[in-house]
Amino acid sequence: MSEINGKVVVITGASSGIGEATAKLLASRGAHVVMGARRVEKLEALASLIQAEGGSALYQQLDVTSIEQMQSIIRLAQSRFGRVDVIVNNAGVMPLSPLEALKIDEWNRISTSISAEFCTVLPQVYP
Ligand SMILES: NC(=O)c1ccc[n+]([C@@H]2O[C@H](COP(=O)([O-])OP(=O)(O)OC[C@H]3O[C@@H](n4cnc5c(N)ncnc54)[C@H](OP(=O)(O)O)[C@@H]3O)[C@@H](O)[C@H]2O)c1
């Protein structure tokens, strides 16, 4: 049996790309995936797909720049499955432009990827 089977895995940024693919793969191998991202309609569709294929998936809207929302998704996983085994700390943005383009809004959004790091300590801080 797969070592992934039965693991409780929180995945941030699960609404597209690497996070979505990770959720599908881990769920297909028996993990309980708890998915977060801002585009909740994408998460809803993904959870339905995973469940239709016999997998276990929950989702909750999540903006990783909000510590309260990160606490909330960890608590969701803990309350539904009793624990968190793994956090796939995937949410992030990667805007690319030359500095002289002065895309200050994009620069400020890079903090998303830094804020997301707090998620990795939440199970210890909020048992
Ligand atoms: N693809 C690459 O070549 C590459 C290379 C190096 C690093 N990475 C990193 O790998 C990760 C995934 O990349 P990807 O290519 O799969 O990109 P992607 O398709 O754009 O996925 C990014 C995910 O992050 C979520 N996200 C962004 N801001 C968020 C926020 N504030 N709160 C919660 N979720 C947020 C997005 O969901 P919502 O918009 O629905 O919130 C989306 O699900 C990113 O952190 C990226 O920086 C990717």
Please give a structural write-up.
The chain has 127 residues and is an alpha/beta fold. It has one domain: Rossmann fold (3-Layer(aba) Sandwich), CATH 3.40.50.720. Helix content is 43%, strand content 16%. The chain has six helices and four strands, in the order E-H-E-H-E-H-E-H-H-H. Strands 3-2-1-4 form a four-stranded parallel beta sheet, with helices on both faces. Strand 1, helix 1 and strand 2 form a beta-alpha-beta unit. The protein is globular. 31% of the residues are buried. Bound molecules: NADP nicotinamide-adenine-dinucleotide phosphate. The site of NADP nicotinamide-adenine-dinucleotide phosphate (NAP) has 22 residues, from helix 1 and helix 5. This is NADP-dependent 3-hydroxy acid dehydrogenase YdfG. InterPro entries: NAD(P)-bd_dom_sf, SDR_fam. It comes from Paenibacillus favisporus. Keywords: Oxidoreductase. Pfam families: adh_short (PF00106).
Supply database-style keywords.
127 residues, Rossmann fold, four-stranded parallel β-sheet, 6 helices, 4 strands, 43% helix, globular, binds NADP nicotinamide-adenine-dinucleotide phosphate
